[in-house]
# Entry
Amino acid sequence: QVQVVESGGGLVQDGGSLRLSCAASGRTVSSRAMGWFRQAPGKEREFVAFINWSGGSTAYADSVKGRFTISRDNAKNTLYLQMNSLKPEDTANYYCAAASQLFGILYTSRTFENAYWGQGTQVTVSS
# Structure
């Protein structure tokens, strides 16, 4: 069983920065690809960033490329999302996900099918 818990959300001004963390538990966590998603009020959940099990491959949504950086520390079973140059349109509830398959290398639209999800952490960017 894998569990993930997000933290680090909050209120920040336009142009500011935040770092989200996702603490994962379970024996196989370090062998799973992980990712960040977000959902704004009235909108569907959308992909933000992906990192493979070793940290050697990442992928980002076009809307966050160059501003957000995903990373992981497998020794601590923790996933991070460094968010810089935040914009009001980044306001959303941010979710961490651990892939159901082991040793995923590259991101596909199916990577997070049947994934393990956290409860989310709210990020609000004021203009």
Notes: The mean pLDDT is 96. The CA atoms of residues 67 and 84 lie 5 Å apart. The longest strand covers residues 92-102. The chain is about 0% helix and 50% strand.
